[in-house]
């Protein structure tokens, strides 16, 4: 499926700069797949308060709840039962919580899912994501997709990814929960052993933390900035903005992010490789699609 739709919003970098002062610093395959919810009966969110959403003043950058976007319509259906517009098929709501919804990706299989905020958040360019109020969707995606999660990705190696504004088709933030090739996992562990990745967020943007990783066959190498973290408890969007985007005068809208849990023969190795790239890098890319396996 074509994942490219070049839609640009103005003023993203400026708004993100205004928020800088409040930005946060801070597998084995499952035996069975998830049981889809009956599409005619959306799952009600469990009791409990949801995290805060972008204020109305950010709607120009983060989207309006009244927008007619296919994925946002799916989120509203799962969370409130609002019927999608005529011609749009209601989704299977695989998991619905106060903070996020899990849907099938395309193509539909047992290693291709999407996690979407229950809030109206258009994508990575939304400056609310780098604030201290933003919910930690990356950790939710990992806890959902891992072999013991509620919607496990049935693939030996898991990858989580967000595309840039220009490389996505739909305008509701969605984290891909998919597979990554064993060769990608091996390459990242090799780079770690060579000291070719940052182990502190402050060094994420250093040239020494950049390395080439080969993705899908025939796609060639792409250059990524690589950070190794022991967990996903920090706001990855804020870490990227504070340590890479703002110091280098880049735009959040152009960034892609990929998270690959470190896996060994013994299973999850209690570490994550966080990859970032954009077209400002030599052989850089603004899409996560080179590394993730959807088919």
Q: What keywords describe this structure?
A:
295 residues; alpha+beta; HIT family, subunit A; 10-stranded antiparallel beta sheet; 6 helices; 18% helix; globular; disordered N terminus
In short, what is this structure?
With 295 residues, the protein is an alpha+beta fold. The protein has helices spanning 12-18, 59-62, 70-80, 137-145, 182-193, 236-245; strands at residues 95-96, 100-109, 112-117, 158-162, 175-180, 210-214, 221-229, 256-264, 267-277, 292-293. Strands 1, 2, 3, 4, 5, 6, 7, 8, 9 and 10 form a 10-stranded antiparallel β-sheet that branches.
- What's the mean pLDDT score? 87
CATH fourth-tier homologous superfamily of the domain at 14-23 and 101-293: HIT family -  CDH-like
CA radius of gyration: 18 Å
- Provide the low-confidence segments as ranges: 1-47
Biggest β-sheet description: 10 strands, antiparallel
The overall strand count is 10
Structural class: alpha+beta
Helix-strand sequence:
HHHEEEHEEHEEHEEE
Please name the CATH topology of the domain at 14-23 and 101-293. Answer: HIT family, subunit A
- Counting DSSP H or I runs of 4 or more residues, the number of helices is 6
Question: What distance lies between the first and last C-alpha atoms, to the nearest angstrom?
Answer: 10 Å
**CATH class categorisation of the domain at 14-23 and 101-293:** Alpha Beta
Strand content: 15-25%
Looking at the overall shape, the CATH architecture of the domain at 14-23 and 101-293 is 2-Layer Sandwich
Question: Residue share in helices?
Answer: 10-25%
Shape: globular
């Amino acid at each position: 499926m074509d994942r490219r739709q070049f839609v640009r919003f103005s003023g993203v970098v400026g708004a993100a700069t205004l928020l800088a002062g409040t930005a946060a610093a801070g597998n084995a395959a499952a035996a069975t797949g998830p049981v889809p919810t009956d599409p005619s009966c959306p799952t009600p969110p469990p009791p409990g308060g949801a995290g805060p959403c972008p204020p109305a003043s950010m709607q120009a950058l983060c989207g309006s709840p009244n927008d007619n976007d296919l994925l946002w319509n799916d989120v509203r259906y799962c969370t409130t039962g609002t019927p999608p517009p005529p011609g749009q098929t209601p989704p299977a709501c695989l998991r619905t919580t106060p903070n996020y919804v899990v849907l099938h990706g395309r193509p539909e299989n047992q290693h291709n899912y999407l996690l979407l905020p229950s809030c109206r958040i258009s994508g990575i360019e939304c400056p609310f994501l780098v604030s201290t109020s933003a919910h930690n969707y990356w950790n939710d995606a990992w806890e959902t997709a891992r072999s013991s999660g509620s919607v496990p990705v049935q693939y030996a190696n898991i990858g989580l990814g967000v595309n840039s504004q220009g490389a996505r088709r739909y305008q509701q933030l969605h984290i891909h929960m998919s597979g990554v090739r064993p060769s990608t996992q091996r390459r990242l562990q090799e780079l770690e052993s060579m000291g070719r990745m940052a182990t502190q967020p402050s060094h994420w943007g250093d040239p020494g933390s950049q390395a080439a990783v080969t993705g899908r066959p025939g796609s060639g190498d792409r250059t990524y900035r690589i950070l190794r973290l022991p967990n996903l408890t920090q706001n990855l969007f804020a870490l990227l903005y504070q340590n890479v985007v703002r110091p280098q005068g880049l735009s959040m809208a152009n960034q892609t992010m990929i998270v690959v849990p470190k896996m060994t023969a013994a299973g999850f190795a209690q570490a994550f490789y966080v990859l970032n790239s954009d077209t400002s890098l030599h052989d850089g890319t603004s899409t996560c699609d080179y590394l993730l396996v959807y088919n």
